[in-house]
């Protein structure tokens, strides 16, 4: 019990201080779990990070869950997730409740300039995500073509189903067309290539990796690491539960129509189908939440912009939508729903990862999926992000400036969000 509490406290510290999105989170995790506390060594950290890139879901949260599970068993994984998630959960739900109250208190409309500024922050953030992910995941002609094809499919067929079809088609195309390429890039047993090919690795973590002299460091707690890993039987049960819920929830929703079940199903499906990190969940949630009337389009983008300014996982954006749709209960249902598939998948895959990670065909499928994810995000950049936020030359100029601050000047995400809100208030008034 003491170890579980310790995992929770360390994760809470990270949930309160880890700004900057999933890329930066992995840098914070490396400093805290590997270098400072020595709960695992660099090779195992790289292995775990590679696994979480392979799986759908929030990669940084899944890395934390995996470390908690290795440290203190299944309950340790739950403690790591709770600790990392609760600060931003409360902040995002509170933001949803406070939008109208703040507007009334300050005598401004809910469509005020600062709110529109946050929507332009979303334009800059998603544009940077497309740019950086494209350079990493669609860097050659074949993968770039897959990305453009996925973007075209989703744009011409703007439904949630089209996104699933695009991602699945990317996986099939990867298996057929990219197998020869990925075969030459098979992961080394030491795991260093895992870190190099993982687009979520923070640049500071990579620089630190190169500077570390391993002989001068103490050996990590090898007995603690891995003692809580699920058995293969338990892992198979978790994987089966993840797939069963994905298949059964839509049917249950049709048989027992309820608002809570609809929320849980929609967010579970989004969490189960997201490859590529927190920003990629945007198009899936937009198709689900806005189409269902759970949140207005303008407030959806404003909430997403506000999420950039907060520490912790971007997936807690679900708390904002859930709170808009159903108060505190809706926020809780949406948050559990979007994180649950990622939790089950990392718990289920950990016992089998060593066997999977060396298969070139698996890596080829993943390469195709990742390229398609870039295309899905590119389509989302146009609609709804661009079409809902950029309505004048001034909006374009402000969005371009925010993009430059984020992409070229490396301003932290919270600072970009603050600049965007203030600039929107100045340009549009209020």
Counting DSSP E segments of at least 2 residues, the number of strands comes to 0
N to C succession of SSEs? HHHHHHHHHHHHHHHHHHH
> Distance between the terminal alpha carbons, to the nearest Å?
50 Å
Shape: globular
Q: Name the structural class.
A: mainly alpha
Q: Sheet with the most strands?
A: none
- Give the helix proportion (percent range): over 70%
Q: Please tell me the total number of domains.
A: 1
Helix count from the secondary structure assignment: 19
Which residues form runs of ≥5 with pLDDT under 50? 106-110, 186-225
- Radius of gyration, in Å, reads 21 Å
What percentage of the residues does DSSP assign to strands (E)? under 5%
**Average residue pLDDT:** 81
Explain this structure.
By secondary structure, the chain is an all-alpha fold. It has one domain. The chain is 77% helix and 0% strand. It has 19 helices and no strands. The model is unreliable at 106-110 and 186-225 (pLDDT under 50).
